[in-house]
Structures are given as C-alpha cells and as structure tokens.
Amino acid sequence: MLHVLGHEERENENREGMIEATFLIPLTQNGNGNRHSKKLWDKFHTELCDTFGGFTKECKVYGQWVNGNGEVIKDHSWKYIVAIDSNRTAELESCLSKFKLIFDQETIYLSVNGQVYFI
C-alpha cells in the first residue's frame, strides 16, 4: 500500500535514513521522436512531489546506449535527483515504471546510492 507523506510527516522523517536517487528521463518519445508535452512533465513533477516530497531537475545530459536490437540510441535527457527514505526504493522503481510507459520509453536509467537499475 502506498503511503503518501503529508508535509508535517516529511518534516519529521528521519533524515539519517535518506538516500539519493538519480534518474534520466529522455526529452522525446521513443516511438515517434516527439517532445513530451508540458502537461506530461507537470504530471510527472506533481507525482514526484506528492509521493517523495520533491525533486531537483539538475540538467540536460546527452548519452548513447545500445538497445536489444543492437541499434545505437542517442538521447538527450533531463537528470533528476530525489532524496528518498532508504526503504522506498521499490516505490520509486514503481513510479518510474509507470512513467516509462507514459513517456514511451524502452528503459529508464536509475541509480540509487551507486546501485544501477534499468527500469
């Protein structure tokens, strides 16, 4: 069951149990290369704030990776940072899995405390 912390609960969280998670969200859809709408970005940002209490959208980054068909994929992405309680990693993975479909992505790169996941 998802428990969304209210403002007062977030203020009282144990800060020592917080860890840093970073992830990349490409600027365009995989299927057609169109840029994501402002409405979609707003929905994503609201979800991050409501679920994890906030985020930092650090910068645009560029990278390349090889997909399952051996094709080189070139992406420009936003890099996000979210501080989460150490026992909420699965909840972040679930959130990113949902938005992976909404953003029409094959994979989302996630790093939690140096541990890398491909969602």
- Adjacency order of strands in the biggest sheet: 2-3-1-4-5
Question: Class in CATH?
Answer: Alpha Beta
Structural class label: alpha+beta
Helix content: 25-40%
Distinct helical segment count: 3
CATH architecture: 2-Layer Sandwich
Low-confidence stretches: none
Q: Can you write the helix and strand succession as a string? A: HEHEEHEE
General form: globular
Main sheet record: 5 strands, antiparallel
Rg from Cα: 15 Å
- Which whole number gives the mean pLDDT? 89
Number of domains in the coordinates? Answer: 1
Distance between the termini: 21 Å
Number of strands: 5
- CATH topology term: Alpha-Beta Plaits
- Strand fraction equals 35-45%
Walk me through what this model shows.
With 119 residues, this protein is of the alpha+beta class. The protein has a single domain (7-118), classed as Alpha-Beta Plaits (2-Layer Sandwich). The chain contains 3 helices and 5 strands. The chain has a 5-stranded antiparallel beta sheet with strand order 2-3-1-4-5, with helices on one face. It is globular, with a radius of gyration of 15 Å. The mean pLDDT is 89.
